[in-house]
Amino acid sequence: MPDIIRLLPDSLANQIAAGEVVQRPASAIKELLENSIDAGATDIKVIIKEAGKTLMQVMDNGKGMSETDARMSLERHATSKISKTEDLFSIRTMGFRGEALASMAAVSQLEIKTRQPDAELGTLLYVEASEVKKQEPVACEQGTSICIKNLFYNVPARRNFLKSNGVEMKHITDEFQRVALANPEVAFSLYQNDLETYNLPAGKLSQRIVNLFGKNYKEQLASCHEEAGEISIHGYIGKPEFAKKTRGEQFFFVNKRFVRSNYLNHAVMNAFEGLLAEGSFPFYVLFIEIDPIHVDVNVHPTKTEIKFDDERTVYAIVRAAAKQALATHNITPALDFSADINLGSKMNFSRETIKDKNYSQFRSTGNSNLQKSNQEHWEKLFHEHPGKGSMNRDIEREEPADAGSMTLTFESNLNTKSESEVMAAEHKKSIFQLHQKYIITQVKSGMMIVDQQAAHERILFEKYMGCLKSSKGASQQTLFPQTLSLNPGDHSLVMEMEEELRALGFLVEPFGKNDIIIKGMPAEIGAANEKEIFEGLIEQFKRNKSELSIPRKENLARALAKRTALKHGTRLSEDEMSGLIDQLFACDSPNYAPNGQVTFYILELNKIDNFFNK
């Protein structure tokens, strides 16, 4: 039999590698930005057109490359950062694998212009599908400019899997923000379709956070700093009162590399225990500096997942740093009796970091439990000993009526209630609220239990979808227009959805570079905190966008219904409960909330009988 195993051509091998390294335009931007940082650039400019599908260009003023280096950079596994096995365990640079440029060149039309500081002329390279079409000297600025055109032009199947321009641009913005946060000493700028989105001067981390996310972040930053042995942690955490309902703006950097870690996130959330409303997430930007020998950064192709050789110690230090920051800013008591101060192990720390968990739980919940207990006792006292007016009414009811003033009533059709009135009265008597969460009412087959929040979400969702389809949402102008500062990404998102927002009843106008003015709100929302509702709508919209593949209008309707629906814990009158049930069964799909949650359940009478062995 003939041999069947053979080596792949380089061009095909590079295309396969591109599937791991260049998953979407944002992946290419990340690699190029990291290369610019490693080249010592102090000013980096990013130009994007059509969300990176037609053009991505990154220009820097770094040290540039020689003619030979420029050509070698397009070869697979070519790198200037690793020469022996030991180097893999002491990596402090960003891009080190050496396959990024080769992979990009395999699936795009790529142009490189680069010049070293001491060279009079630079080098121009033009590559299509891994084939070098042009190489010549060129006059250019010091540093490197890499331009990627028509990404995936020769792999149409991959190009078809790219999302809409809005989604892809959001991913690019996310990568840009992460690199910009990790390097506040470097100036960055981002241009989208010839419009400036970000212009970030070099400065302090706090200035970079404000320039990226908006002026309103200036008030919420609590500085965080902790050193113990070989670990150093610094950065900022957001104060609890500024927490949002989505966990988007949470950043961990290990040796200036952005990482995702549910384990470390749990450490920060643990420090906020008892300070956050349910379902709220704080803002934080935390940098962990640690000897690279204790970290494996080569776990995942995107290098966003890492491993520590002593995770429990890192967890303890992160948690202690967050608690200390909250205490320093008078947000929580400074003494932390739950942490072991004797930290020492193979990284000069102890693995046993939490000794007295029971005390910690008492400290975080004890006061609230005591307050709740006192409140229940006062309420009980109030009901057992009602006010004077109530007592007088009871006495008046107990006094016998005067015989001379007695009224005789004769039977007449005028005094007889109709059957429908009797039915309505019975229905009204049989409806009540359970724990301010469920509505319970009697039905013919047994008992119906309605989840008031899920039911209201369904009602509002169908109402908002109707407004979006007809573009006739009722709006109520605000007495005092509210100015809202947004980060550039959110501002462009709002402007992109201006027509849909107006159909729902929002009247918003641009005001300045990244600010908007809220002049009107949907009429059915009524008097409310306009800023809070609008910010919540945008956050929920972004969260839905990241988790679901649904049209924009449906996403908006879902997001607004989620943010404005009745919440569990809201007390309702009998009329309000009856009205909610009537509106629910007037919906096209009353059985389920927009997220698929059941809105009501009928407990049949025979099942209830079974509970009593009947």
Automatic annotation (TrEMBL):
<dbReference type="InterPro" id="IPR014721">
    <property type="entry name" value="Ribsml_uS5_D2-typ_fold_subgr"/>
</dbReference>
<dbReference type="InterPro" id="IPR020568">
    <property type="entry name" value="Ribosomal_Su5_D2-typ_SF"/>
</dbReference>
<feature type="domain" description="MutL C-terminal dimerisation">
    <location>
        <begin position="430"/>
        <end position="572"/>
    </location>
</feature>
<dbReference type="InterPro" id="IPR042120">
    <property type="entry name" value="MutL_C_dimsub"/>
</dbReference>
<protein>
    <recommendedName>
        <fullName>DNA mismatch repair protein MutL</fullName>
    </recommendedName>
</protein>
<dbReference type="InterPro" id="IPR002099">
    <property type="entry name" value="MutL/Mlh/PMS"/>
</dbReference>
<dbReference type="InterPro" id="IPR037198">
    <property type="entry name" value="MutL_C_sf"/>
</dbReference>
<dbReference type="GO" id="GO:0004519">
    <property type="term" value="F:endonuclease activity"/>
</dbReference>
<keyword id="KW-0255">Endonuclease</keyword>
<dbReference type="Pfam" id="PF01119">
    <property type="entry name" value="DNA_mis_repair"/>
</dbReference>
<feature type="domain" description="DNA mismatch repair protein S5">
    <location>
        <begin position="209"/>
        <end position="327"/>
    </location>
</feature>
<dbReference type="InterPro" id="IPR036890">
    <property type="entry name" value="HATPase_C_sf"/>
</dbReference>
<dbReference type="Pfam" id="PF13589">
    <property type="entry name" value="HATPase_c_3"/>
</dbReference>
<dbReference type="Pfam" id="PF08676">
    <property type="entry name" value="MutL_C"/>
</dbReference>
<dbReference type="InterPro" id="IPR020667">
    <property type="entry name" value="DNA_mismatch_repair_MutL"/>
</dbReference>
<keyword id="KW-0234">DNA repair</keyword>
<keyword id="KW-0540">Nuclease</keyword>
<dbReference type="InterPro" id="IPR013507">
    <property type="entry name" value="DNA_mismatch_S5_2-like"/>
</dbReference>
<comment type="function">
    <text>This protein is involved in the repair of mismatches in DNA. It is required for dam-dependent methyl-directed DNA mismatch repair. May act as a 'molecular matchmaker', a protein that promotes the formation of a stable complex between two or more DNA-binding proteins in an ATP-dependent manner without itself being part of a final effector complex.</text>
</comment>
<dbReference type="InterPro" id="IPR042121">
    <property type="entry name" value="MutL_C_regsub"/>
</dbReference>
<keyword id="KW-0378">Hydrolase</keyword>
<keyword id="KW-0227">DNA damage</keyword>
<dbReference type="InterPro" id="IPR014762">
    <property type="entry name" value="DNA_mismatch_repair_CS"/>
</dbReference>
<comment type="similarity">
    <text>Belongs to the DNA mismatch repair MutL/HexB family.</text>
</comment>
<dbReference type="InterPro" id="IPR038973">
    <property type="entry name" value="MutL/Mlh/Pms-like"/>
</dbReference>
<dbReference type="InterPro" id="IPR014790">
    <property type="entry name" value="MutL_C"/>
</dbReference>
